[in-house]
Specification:
Largest interface: A-C, 72 and 104 residues
Low-confidence stretches of chain C: 430-436
CATH architecture of chain A: 3-Layer(aba) Sandwich
CATH superfamily of one domain in chain C: NagB/RpiA/CoA transferase-like
Helix content of chain A: 25-40%
Low-confidence stretches of chain A: none
Mean pLDDT of chain C: 94
CATH topology of chain A: Rossmann fold
CATH architecture of one domain in chain C: 3-Layer(aba) Sandwich
Structural class of chain C: alpha/beta
Number of strands of chain C: 10
Oligomer: heterotrimer
Structural class of chain A: alpha/beta
CATH class of chain A: Alpha Beta
Strand content of chain A: 15-25%
Radius of gyration of chain C: 25 Å
Number of domains of chain A: 1
Radius of gyration of chain A: 20 Å
Strand order of the largest sheet of chain C: 1-10-7-4-2-3
Chains: A alpha/beta (194), B alpha/beta (237), C alpha/beta (464)
Mean pLDDT of chain A: 93
Amino acid sequence: MSAARDRIFGRVRAAVHGRKRTDHPGDFLGWRPASSVTDAVAGFTEMFTAAGGEVVRLASMGLASTWLRDFAAGFTGVALGASLPDDFVPDFSLAQPESAELGVSTAVGAVAETGSLVLDARDGRRVQLLPPTHVVLLRKEVVYPTLAEALEVVSRDPPSAVGLHSGPSKSADIGQILVKGVHGPGRVIALLVG
Amino acid sequence: MRVALFATCLGDRLFADACADAVRLLRRLGCDVAFPEAQTCCGQPAFNAGYVAEARRMARHTMRVFADADHVVLPSGSCAGMLHRYYPDFFEGAERVRAGQLAGRTWELSQFLVRVLGVVDLGGGLRGRRVAYHHGCHALRELGVHDEPVSLLRAGGAEVVPWEADQECCGFGGLFSTKFPPVSAGMADRKLESLPAVDVVTSADGGCLMQMAGRAGRRGFATPFRHLASLLLEATA
Amino acid sequence: MTRARPADYPQAAAATLRDTPEVRDAVTAATRTFDTHRRESWAQIDAERWRDWCRDVKDHVLTHLDDLLEQAEVRLVANGATVHWAEGAYDALATLGRIVDAEGVRRVVKAKSMLTEELGVNTFLEGRGVHVRETDLGEYIIQLLGEPPSHIVGPAIHRSVDDCRRLFHRHFGTPLDATPEALAATARQALREEFLAADLGISGCNFLVAETGTLALIENEGNIRLSTSAPRVHVAFVGIEKILPRMVDLSGFLQITARGATGQPIGTYVSLIRGPRGEGESDGPEQVHVVLVDNGRTTLLADDVAWETLRCVRCGACLNICPVYRQTGGHPYGFTYSGPIGAILAPALLGLEEAMPLPFASSLCGACADVCPVRIPIPDLLLHWRARAVEAGLTPLGERVAMRAYAAAAERPGGFSGAGSLLRYVPWKRGGRALPVLGGWSAERDPPEISARPFHKLWREGIE
């Protein structure tokens, strides 16, 4: 190990030594939106929509697949995430994420209290980020009330990277005026099944 | 009720009439007012500028002067805040205990009227007056004085006009105002630019009034600035 | 561009207010919007309990930092990341230089990071002939302008839409009446090419989870996700205080940071990165380097009073509510971090003498302490550094002499009639400059009206 490391640790230990060590306060049991506790799906829908995302809720995978086929017809070039079920994928004109107008991926979870989709790197990161419109397949069973629960679940078999996506890409860096779709997708739709 | 008035150094020289009005007001409300003449400065200007040893000397002196007072009343939120919030930190042992006791007996004027005297009604002498109230930062944050002055002004018949920036700093900050004059003036400008149409601006803090009035004068604002003590006395008239 | 220094703050602040008054308007408007959103957002939650919890977690981290850093390092290495340690900017940049050389890096995309500003990463890379591009829209704007960030969260808040229109017109030939949407689309296109062509992505880090070795990064645009996903190599610069013990701790911190910064429930994008691209992953970096940086942080940690400063999560809430910061934005502070948090970080990270007069550039109004999500007692720490400055003899001689005399006089009742008494002798008409303590008042304000008779005389005469 490097000399820099040793010196840094030496200084940290010297600083911490003699100071009263305080305990971790334990789990955070703070606020949860009322809706998320009783109905995580409703809570997620409310928060995700408030952040500028869209939610399309359908009763079955079959209906979702049909919806996606019709929706994708308006786009030239669709990029697909690796974890979409084969029988779910309609007949698209496929494209690489770099050139696709639409990206379709699968969420491994969602969070009611923050309105977040949980996206796994194994599904492909570029498809989650590069196309201007992003549809995310989400099963209602994996909508968790709180972020803590979702983080706990995602940590069991973690990929190299997880993205929490809570609405479309946005920026107010130009004169404090809100603009969507700056780098990531300007439109994001949670295709909620169940 | 026996009270000792701590006029404060700024009050003594710049707001002498307001201090006198505070005495009249307290007497009118049945208090026996004393003015320990050995009083000087609470030490805040030194403390805020980093001169802790100097501030401690002044604190020690002030503690001696007011050792026997039942209640110490100040027409200044920031000086009251100094005694209340910081004096105990200057000392150890028995002296710290005494500083803590003094802190517990120290009040900004409006705070004393409401919390100790329980004043809810003053008389309607301010009826028809439109007033803007500036919350001095230290009264607000170190003493938690928020509703007291406003409720007293209302009790006196004044219309307290909403002011967007009423809780923002005026930019005085003691030596800060002289170390960084344009920044300090910009802060006062924010107060003035957001000021609603009123007959008078008031505050429990002389330093803030001096700052805002000084800037208002320079910029040609005609609205008068008066100390809360004087307005509350008028309310009883 | 010569780098500004804290010592220039008085002149630089005055010049900003005098020469570019529109900066005050832009910064005031932007920070008031941020602060309003924060207030509304906190009203929806039990913010006080939340703040207590965050403070307590951070205090636990800072009092166990040795163990937690070791744990984080072990986990990161197990995840396949490479861990480097840097004592200062020189170390950190040398590490970056070695990676750049080893990987033959020609093009770099950078995600917004205050630590890389602190270290001077861009200047270093440009000096080595590496093309480096900021990708956060605000950072991109100020990079094109050749300016440092003016705010921790909104680097370009001091610039108006018209400023951006003129800038983009110059660089891209967009019309002078282009909409913000059109300007953003232009930047999106230009930067998209940069992301796809870059060999190396550089990021900072909001939190590093010790138990899992997870880097957490917060943003709204997607540029951090892209900078850490598209290039072959990812280098993350991480301040050693950024540790959180557990994955679930992120829950509270991700939310309070976003709510404190912009009032959002959470940043639009959160990246949780454990290491390089894993088996069966089709994209993502092949290498992840984590550079753990001290650069003055252990000095702060060793300070028995000021160590609490290291709780800071860089949300910018204290800047947004600060009436002093609102006058000028961040540039006059002459330091990477401006506003209240900058004024208490500078003495530790730069050294107190170099940081002067920033600890004094506050009216001590206390608004910052009301909003800090980790309850850093900023006003008390400003007083702490002021006292240290006096002890170190860094305040003006005239002031020191005056204060000593003032305190001595205040112990002699009769000989003293208050600071107010000094005011009578100030030659106000000549600008009041004769007294060092009071000089400067009359430059901006009318002199105070001195009472015809001081109160103690009125008292002696009897008040009826």
